[in-house]
From TrEMBL:
<feature type="region of interest" description="Disordered">
    <location>
        <begin position="442"/>
        <end position="483"/>
    </location>
</feature>
<feature type="compositionally biased region" description="Basic and acidic residues">
    <location>
        <begin position="105"/>
        <end position="119"/>
    </location>
</feature>
<dbReference type="GO" id="GO:0061136">
    <property type="term" value="P:regulation of proteasomal protein catabolic process"/>
</dbReference>
<dbReference type="InterPro" id="IPR028889">
    <property type="entry name" value="USP"/>
</dbReference>
<feature type="region of interest" description="Disordered">
    <location>
        <begin position="496"/>
        <end position="527"/>
    </location>
</feature>
<dbReference type="Pfam" id="PF22566">
    <property type="entry name" value="UBA_8"/>
</dbReference>
<dbReference type="GO" id="GO:0004843">
    <property type="term" value="F:cysteine-type deubiquitinase activity"/>
</dbReference>
<keyword id="KW-1017">Isopeptide bond</keyword>
<dbReference type="InterPro" id="IPR054108">
    <property type="entry name" value="USP25/28_UIM"/>
</dbReference>
<dbReference type="Pfam" id="PF00443">
    <property type="entry name" value="UCH"/>
</dbReference>
<keyword id="KW-0175">Coiled coil</keyword>
<feature type="coiled-coil region">
    <location>
        <begin position="389"/>
        <end position="416"/>
    </location>
</feature>
<feature type="compositionally biased region" description="Polar residues">
    <location>
        <begin position="457"/>
        <end position="471"/>
    </location>
</feature>
<dbReference type="GO" id="GO:0016579">
    <property type="term" value="P:protein deubiquitination"/>
</dbReference>
<feature type="domain" description="USP">
    <location>
        <begin position="146"/>
        <end position="644"/>
    </location>
</feature>
<dbReference type="GO" id="GO:0005634">
    <property type="term" value="C:nucleus"/>
</dbReference>
<dbReference type="GO" id="GO:0070628">
    <property type="term" value="F:proteasome binding"/>
</dbReference>
Amino acid sequence: DCQMLLNQLKEITEIQDSAFLHAALKAANGDLMEAVAFLTEERAQEPAQDAAAAEPSAWEGSAVGRQLPPDAATALTPHNKADPRAAAAFRPLESPKAPAAEGDAADRPQEAHSAESKNRSKRKRCEVWGENPKQSDWRRVGDWPVGMKNIGNTCWFSAVIQSLFQLPEFRRLVLGYSLPQNVLESCHSRTGKRNVVFMQELQCLFALMLGTRRKFVDPSAALELLRDAFRSAEEQQQDVSEFTHKLLDWLEDAFQLAVNVKSPGDKSENPMVQLFYGTFLTEGVHEGNTFSKIETFGQYPLQVNGYRNLNECLEGAMVEGEMDEATASQSAKYGQERWFTKLPPVLTFELSRFEFNQSLGQPEKIHTRLEFPQTIFMDRYLYCSKELIRMKREELKRLKGKMALLQQKLERYMKYGSGPARFPLPNMLQYVLEFVATKPSSSLRSPAEPPVPDAFSQPSGLVSRTESDPQGSALPFSQGLLEREDPRTEDGAFFLAESEPRQRSRASPQPSGSPAEASERPAPHVVSEEELNLVRTCLQRWRNEIEQDVRDLKESIARVSLSVEQMYCDPLLQQVPYRLHAVLVHEGQANAGHYWAFIYDQPRRSWLKYNDISVTESSWEELERDSFGGLKNASAYCLMYISDTVSRSVADGAEGSEAGQFQKEVEALPPELRHYVQEDNWRLEQEAEEWEEEQSCKIPQMEPSPASESQDLSSESG
């Protein structure tokens, strides 16, 4: 547990000194959030000027301020002291999962923030390069995707933005966003101005993610604009799902300004609505009255608890109560079905893995396992398939009922008996058969000696009056059973088979062992050859019959189970495939944790893991281990699927190398964004050269860097 907490602290704070982190954890008595707060306060004591200089220029040279009228830019800067809400919009954003930390940047003087905005483009070399002596630690390698800096509990932002950025259609929408000057001038609401500025900062961030030579980018500018949405007292405990909702709402509103130029108020023309939003129809019966309504959805919520896989989750969300042809004709008071009438190109499922524990008075995370496929067919949830699906559901209901009956029959054979300890009936008959066939040992006591009770020859409590001699002396149970001339001999053998395991409830009877052990096993005292043959014949026949019954039951259950599994494998229900694009993962508990994303890379045809500044190659096996849940406290909380049409367009665009595709997109950028990327790359080379000069002056005995590396740097700088 300590190592897990240390790993989480490393990911959240980006501090790699294990001893320092361990000391902080010890000072916080093992409380992760207190340790994070302690480390954050330690970092906050650094001079504001140094912190500002360590950040990249996300405003300088960006689209912000170029297209906005002067009054809009003034309204959104902290210099407008008359509007504290406008100033608060530029403070660093806190984690959406944790309460706002007291004194966090809210008390920072506005003058310090002004200096920060002016000096962002001037990084401090000691902070950028001091801990990274190797170029591979800070320089992007070829066309490898870039990571995103965690600026303090913002791993959730990185996971969401990376998943969206890797959608080519969404990336093109953001980078191609523009508004006519007259629309900008007519935008007077603070919300509208904020949304436009956020869109333009997102453009700058996406442009850097396309063309930067850095290994990771800094999202501070875009995050500052989001802070105000999470600052209100009633929304301090928002989670990443709420953030994603707000993000899509902001982008939708920003695009609506452009749509209103040609089609005022027409949301159907909004590209965000077209890409992420769908509709579903709800039909049902409430207190005997039928109803139907159409609703719009963006992220479709699904309850995880009680389900094994994604299709079961969807089926549970689409059907509530009993909805069939009989129900539709008012045979029930409540029940409803949902059917998708329009699916969006990007289909997002929001997995509800948190629930509120009433007894503890706090939220808890659900760690149960939930499997999901790489391709899901949505035909079975579409309104156009309603009649066929209703027939399938009725057949499925009948098969599940049949399977339950078969399993009950099988259980009667495999858990035979009337006491608390029960055993498979075929095994019990086999043990009785072995007992009957066992010959008495030569070391048996004389008949005059009183018998010693044991689990086989004379179980306690199994001597009855029917097995006693006329004088009332008890005979051994097996002797009484086999010596008496009673036509119910077979029933007696059955009674013996049932009673044997009851006396050995702690351990199931085992087959015979070595010959030496077999000679000491209990055996009938007196049994004639005729009796032995009769009992042996009956037991063997019954055992064969029962084993055949068990085999038949298992085969029937397997056939029914296969029919259930293949119920929706009808080719008619495999016309609308959706491919898994991204999986957003949360590790931790309800009140703290870490987020990252697995995203499928079409050009490389492999899964990549985006974990803050780190982007590494992964696999479906690792994704299963980290995302399905049930094994540890990491599990998926959001699944992003894309339609087959979008998937093919992504694949077609990725036929060449990703570097070539990104280079084409960089060249297609608007001039101001292209210049912004070039400027940042130029600063990177300047920082690298200055850092190398400092290192050569600081340690003169060190050999200079290889000539090839210097030539590479100078050529890139040129």
